[in-house]
């Protein structure tokens, strides 16, 4: 499957939480989102009228990446509830920062680091090769546990 087809599949299914998403789809969506954000940022530097466009794009892409992340978790045979680590970590961080405002600058790195670690683990851990409780993989791939093809 070509990279363009994987990004297209992600765009078509960007609001679906059911099903599965492979590592290729996950990383190509991530790359597409970052490159478009950087491009819009540099356009905003040169065209003051479009200065905040990259922020809107980034927020939309982050929201659209949540279902993709849940589908990626499904590919790893995990429930999508694991994604709740991110907002729970942010709530705890901001709660502690409200109690102790002088720690605010140090604590803001915690949710960012948590999100980065979560996304890299999700991105690099291989998915379940064959069918699992969340359905067939996309794109289809052979299970490492399937011995019938040998």
What do these coordinates show?
This protein is mostly helical. Helices cover 61% and strands 0% of the residues. The chain has 6 helices and no strands. The chain has helices at residues 3-12, 23-46, 53-75, 85-99, 104-107, 109-124. The two termini are 24 Å apart. The mean pLDDT is 79.
Topology:
Blueprint: H1 3-12, H2 23-46, H3 53-75, H4 85-99, H5 104-107, H6 109-124
Helix pairs in contact: 1-2, 2-3, 4-6
Taking all Cα atoms into account, the compactness measure Rg is 18 Å
The computed structural class is mainly alpha
What is the overall number of helices?
Answer: 6
Per the principal axes of the C-alpha atoms, what is the gross shape? flat
Short structural summary:
The chain has helices at residues 3-12, 23-46, 53-75, 85-99, 104-107, 109-124.
């Amino acid at each position: 499957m070509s990279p363009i087809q994987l990004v297209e599949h992600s765009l078509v299914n960007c609001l679906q939480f059911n099903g599965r998403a492979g590592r290729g789809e996950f990383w190509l969506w991530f790359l597409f989102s970052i490159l478009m954000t950087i491009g819009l940022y540099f356009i905003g530097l040169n065209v003051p009228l479009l200065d905040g466009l990259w922020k809107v794009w980034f927020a939309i892409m982050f929201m659209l990446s949540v279902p993709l992340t849940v589908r990626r978790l499904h590919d790893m045979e995990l429930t999508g509830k694991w994604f709740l680590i991110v907002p729970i970590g942010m709530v705890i961080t901001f709660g502690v920062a409200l109690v102790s405002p002088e720690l605010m600058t140090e604590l803001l790195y915690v949710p960012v680091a948590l999100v980065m670690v979560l996304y890299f683990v999700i991105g690099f851990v291989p998915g379940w090769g064959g069918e699992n409780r969340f359905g067939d993989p996309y794109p289809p791939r052979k299970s490492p546990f399937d011995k019938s093809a040998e």
